[in-house]
Amino acid sequence: MLDSPSSGFTEPLTDFNDLAAIGGLEAVREQVAAAEAAMDQVQEPEPEPVPTEQAEPEWPEPMVPGVLRTPDIPATILPGAWGDMVAAVAKSTQTPTAISVLCALGVLATLLQRRFDVDCGTHTEPLPIWGASVSPSGTRKTAVAGAFQRPLLDWEKRRADAMRREIARNNTVRDTSLKRIESLKLQAGKAKPEDLEAIRTDIENELLNMPDELRAPMLFVEDVTPETMQKLLAEQGGRMGVLSDEPGLFRILGGLYSGGGGASLEVFLKGHAGSALKVHRSQRSVFVDRPAVSMSLMVQPDLMADLAGSNQFRASGLMARFLWAVPVTNVGKRNVYERYRIPNEVREAYNTAALAMLEGYPPEPGEPDKPVTLRLDDCAEELWLDFAQEVEDQQGEGGPLDSIRDWTSKLPGSVARVAALLELAAGGLGRDTVGMEAMYQAITLARLLIPHTKAAFNLLGSDALEADAIAVLKWVRGNGLEEFTQREAQKGMEARFRSVDKLKRAIDKLRDLDCVRVTKRGNKGTNKPTVVVQVNPAILS
Predict the structure, then answer these.
(1) Cβ neighbourhood burial of 361 (10 Å; 0-12, 13-18, 19+)
(2) Of the chain's two ends, which shows fewer C-beta atoms within 10 Å, N or C?
(3) pLDDT higher for 145 or 282?
């Protein structure tokens, strides 16, 4: 119906035909123009925004607990047959090369300690080396250690077999002398005063003529208490190695021996420094000039957490004396179809090289027991001093090496020791100087070991909650998870997280460190949302 005030008509008009019949075409035009003007004044509504998903906030850089990527250590650090054996053992066992490198260095130090030392200009460094590889159970540590120990075990057996008759004869003479002395003492108890002097003279002669106890030489042990180590050093010419793939000695060093009462570690500390060992107890007395104790040990990460409760392990300087390897484990990434045997020529070359280090040992009775001192040549000394200054500049308060200052303060000395060992391994026992190549390789090793040592110190400082958080991260990484639920996590690690609360605390710690974020996701057909843990992408990179 057309009913506009501007039309000028009082009767209602039904359409434009009525309007044209009554008012003409001009009236129609006026009506259309008025309608168009009214339409121009009407605003079109704003289009509704298309709903979009809310963008996730950007991830901050995570602070990953206990995780420090450590570089592998190339076999070429060691020269010739030694390096070839390291590479072959690592390939055969599918283990990180770092473990084999420290095993080989431990063997070298065991063979050469106390027979050589190195002049650093201001002081002389003995050659004992302490190496520790941190690796979880199931990483074939026993196979690695056994491969490097074999020529030493064979040498000990051959020496013991060759000396068997001589040892038996010696024991017989000593036993009869001791029986004779006991008999003379019984006679002295009943003798007349005028006969005592003759009996005393006979006892004295028996003691003086009784030969010293003869023992087959030993190069190393696998497990030992401090008291037994004192005895072994006294019996074995002041030198002993500890080569083991079991953590027994670590428990002793960490104060977990004898119910945690804390064993005397002086014998080990002096064996590393080469300072005189003097023990006077009611039951025994021991004196060893220049004792030498080298170690190559393997320890599981869980034991490092146990050692965190021991003040003496780091406070005594024990931890600072070790060269640490904390390689990234390859468990779960090994190829069981890949079977590689150490070539016979590689094994034989290593055995020959190891036995060559024992030439002239043990010394014949009466031979001088003074070590041969190697000096640094000019190029090696310049490299060593530059490295020592570099370490000094970085270990100040707030510096890159501040957190491991107790370890880095001993690092230049360790480098000099390693360089001397590498020089002797490359050139034989006739060497009297350490050259640039050996020093360069020793410094290269030291630089690679710095992140390993930081990782080891982090493990020592971790608590139970941090260990749980690390376990969750390892599970996430191992399965490549971008997100997971608490139920999935507990099922995947049910042996560790029997309690949901324990798992929640670990996830909360990871959230506080920006490693994960916890969100809730709705479920169709239920009002109860699912808790989803999203993983920071940097964790998986």
Answers:
(1) middle
(2) C
(3) 145
Tokens found for residue 487: 């139920």
- Which H or E run contains 483? strand 483-485
Tokens 């090696």 correspond to: 380
Number of H helices, E strands in the chain: 21, 14
Identity of residue 536: N
Average pLDDT on 378-393 reads: 96
Query: Angle at Cα 82 formed by Cα 76 and Cα 84, nearest 5°?
Result: 60
pLDDT at 285: 80
Average pLDDT, the chain: 85
Question: 88 near 343, Cβ under 8 Å?
Answer: yes
Residues ≥6 apart with Cβ < 8 Å to 337: none
Give the residue from 512, 503, 465 showing the smallest Cα distance to 484.
Answer: 503
**Token digits for 495?**
């042996």
Residue matched to tokens 């076999």: 75
Structure tokens at 262: 């804390």
Q: Is residue 433 within 8 Å of 375, Cβ to Cβ? A: yes
Q: CA distances (Å), 525 to each of 383, 528, 531, in order? A: 72, 9, 16
Quick check: helix, strand or coil at residue 134? strand
DSSP for 371-429 reads PEEEEE-HHHHHHHHHHHHHHHHHSSTTSTTGGGHHHHTTHHHHHHHHHHHHHHHHH-T
Tens digits of per-residue pLDDT, 164-205?
A: 999 899 899 999 989 998 888 888 888 888 888 888 888 888
Q: State whether residue 179 is helix, strand or coil.
A: helix
Q: Burial code of 69-104, b = ≥16 C-beta within 10 A, e = fewer?
A: ebebbbbebbbebbbbbbbbbbbbbbbbbbbbbbbb
CA atoms within 13 A on the CB side of 97: 19
Query: Under a CB-based contact definition with an 8 Å cutoff, are residues 289 and 301 in contact?
Result: no
What pTM was computed for the model?
A: 0.75
CA atoms within 13 A on the CB side of 52: 5
Task: Kindly state the average pLDDT of the residues 331-349.
Answer: 90
Residues, the chain: 541
Q: Which long-range contacts (CB under 8 A, 24 or more apart) does 85-90 make?
A: 85/147, 85/148, 85/342, 85/346, 85/347, 85/349, 85/350, 88/342, 88/343, 88/346, 88/347, 89/143, 89/144, 89/147, 89/148, 89/342, 90/144
- Return the exposure string of 149-174: e unless at least 16 CB atoms fall within 10 Å of the residue's CB, then b: bebbeebeeebeeeeeeeeeebeeee
Q: Which neighbouring-strand residues pair with 121? A: none
Asked if residues 323 and 131 have their Cβ atoms less than 8 Å apart, the reply is yes
Which whole-number Å values give the CA distances from 104 to 88, 144, 200, in the listed order?
A: 12, 10, 54
Instruction: List CB contacts of 155: < 8 A, sequence separation 6 or more.
Output: 219, 355, 358
